Amino acid sequence: MVAFIVDIPQGITDSATVLPVQIYLWADSPERAFVAKTAAAILVLLGFLIVMNGIAVWLRKKF
Fold it and tell me: C-alpha distances in angstroms, 27 versus 6, 24, 36, 40?
């Protein structure tokens, strides 16, 4: 990762760190509001990994 940004992004265009580090920061936060954000980020990461794996399987079968 190029940079470690501690601040929580406020919008889609704000600078942010990679998603696993962001999940770790949110999970480590004592505020209960970050529980939902952490769960949502985990689901986004899991969904992305499933899609990438599906594309890899499709490409392997095609070629």
Answer: 13, 5, 10, 11
Rounded distance between C-alpha atoms, residue 61 and residue 3, angstroms:
37
The pTM for the full model equals 0.70
Every domain of the chain and the residues it spans:
20-62
C-alpha span between 44 and 28 (Å, rounded): 18
Q: Which two tokens stand for residue 5?
A: 């940004």
Q: How confident is the model at residue 46 (pLDDT cuts 50, 70, 90)?
A: very high
Specify the higher pLDDT residue, 57 or 35. Answer: 57
At 24, the amino acid letter reads: Y
Supply the pLDDT for residue 4: 65
Q: Are 48 and 55 in contact (CB under 8 A)?
A: no
